[in-house]
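Re: weekly structure request thread

Next one in the queue (739 aa):
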Amino acid sequence: MQPNSSPILLIFILAAVSSWSLVVHSENHLQIRGARSFLGVSLAQSVWTALYVLELISRTPSEKIVWDTLQWFPAILGALAMLDFAANLTGTCERITWKLTALPSIAFIVMIATEPLHGLLYSHATVITGAPFDQLFYPYRLVHWLMMGYTYFLLGFSIFLLARRLILASGTLRSQILWLILALSMMVGLNSLGALFDVRLFNQRDIAPLTFGVGNAIMGWGLFRYRLFDLAPRARRLAVERMEVGFIVTDIDLNVIDMNRSALDITTSECRNSDPTTLPSLLNCWSSQLDFAALASGSVQVVQRMHAGRMNIFELHMAPVRSDNDQADGYLVTLRDVTESGRLEESLRLSEARYRSIFDAMSDSILLYDADGRIIAANAASEQIFGIPTSQMLGKRFSPSQWQAINEDGAPLPPDDYPIVLALRDGIATHGVVMGLYTPDNRLIWLSINAEPLVPDASRPRGAIAAIRNITEYKGMQRQSMALRLERERSSLLANFIRNASHEFRTPLATINTSLYLLSRHTDETRRREHIAKAEREVDRLSHLVDVQTRLASLDSGLTLAFAETRVGTLMDSVKARFARPTEQATVISRWNTAEGLPMIRCNAEHLAVALQQIVDNALRHTLPGGTVEIDVRSEGADVLITISDTGNGIQPEDMSRIFERFWRQDDAHSTPGFGLGLPLAKVIVNRHGGTIDVTSVVGTGTRVEIRLPFAGPPETGGATDGDASSSEHRTSEVSALQ
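Done, posted below.
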């Protein structure tokens, strides 16, 4: 740093101060839309400028790199804050995908924070001696251009949002936005040109802090000339000051912090001279008739008092002033002169106050509709149930496009069946109607609704009233109870599964383990191949069991099946091929009879083949050696009928009701492999194809399974059938399937 650098540092310090002044101005107007985001922009500029000054006065390269690194954080965060400010000011905040927008910021920030690990930013940084400040120089790489391009994109998009709003704006708002665009465009333009053309000031290529000073001067002019962030509060204050109703504002401790002119005029001069600082002392000084406890509880108080030389009647009401989190931050007391209304109006107001107290005190939502279906009254419970301020409900109709209604079974509830529609249109009273509503923010609330038409004896109802109770918690308890029952059932199924799985996997795993052990012991190649083949068969068995369970789970989870026109003969050939491979066990004769000329069926061939394979495999496994399994396929009416008959042991009559029960097995000793999932899987697949499956069995004689599936269309006479029409009526084959 050179001796003549102090005046230049003063320029940068003034730029930082100008940014900070905008921080203070924004902090004083945080209740205005966009002020919080603008505070973030100005704070980022101020921090960036301060870090830049620290970089300038640093002497060593390591110190300069530290301060230069830290400048990237306010640069990126400030650009995001500017986009948020522009979106809030223009009302487009909800249409910006903030998670996607902020994702590059997070990536860049992580990259900056981890610079010592990868060295992508400053690996070739050097310090060039010069006047008035030494310059930290490093070549711009792709990552630098990406970060700068990203920040300029955010700022450019902010300018676009403001410019689009400028077209529709008028008056003071147009002037405010115009000055913001000028300041922002100047900063973005000068900075981008400086980066592209290597413009240097004071021997430094980063000119952003200087542009901040100029830009903030323009923004400051717009802020104070056109009252940005300040016009709406001033307008509200002016309106309140001109109202004839008196307003007294207190904090949570009832200390008086503000009164409008009407309140000052209504409260007597002697009370003002005594300078009461709390609301109770002010009102007690003003009138001894006042019941402050009743007023604080929300009751409307009516007081008679001499004012302007005559007896006047005043109405007082006290309500809490709530923050965004629904906590009371203070109280608002209204004083209204109702003398001109007379005693009748006083009586009516008291009656209305009582009605309103009861109305608001009710835990159920009460909605009053006019004849056109507009809401003309809503109590506080309505706001709690629907999450919409009552002020926004009044004068509005129920909008089916924003609120999706459903029945208890989850089916959509047509708008014509809404209870309030029935009451207004048909004069029909409804009681205890349960319906669910998806709110605009996608919350599901359950309601019990009573709707009554007003003046039901007239030709057309003049309105309707609805009492709505939120039963979401009750429904939740119902769901919890149901979930508990389902969880118990799942636990039972899981216990069954674990018990069966442990048994079914233990045997093949033991066989595999033994085969591997013997394989390591034998040197005879023939014996080694035998053990390898035995292990492979057990692996195939395990794979088959896992495949069945996986397929059943997929179908249970709502797997969508792709259907296509399929030849019945081709389908049966694929099933038969599954059992054509011989094994070392005793044979069971299987006969496959498929009628010729069958129409094609619309199905998912893969899943339907699996279902048929499960049933055939079941028949083969439960038929003794030398027995017969016959598979017959023919048409019957509009269906294809597939029959699988075996000469096995049959099923006990008392067990017939459980054959499609998952994990159930007739063989309690588990001497045959399987999970008890074959028939359940087959039934699920057949049902998904619109078919049926029926089982009949005689103990000692065998079992017969009939599967009916609908054809895709009438029988064809051309080449689309399952065989040549000139061949015999049936084609019959015998294969040796092994149990």
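The first strand starts at residue 126 and ends at 128. Residues 713-739 have pLDDT under 50 and may be disordered.
Next request, please.
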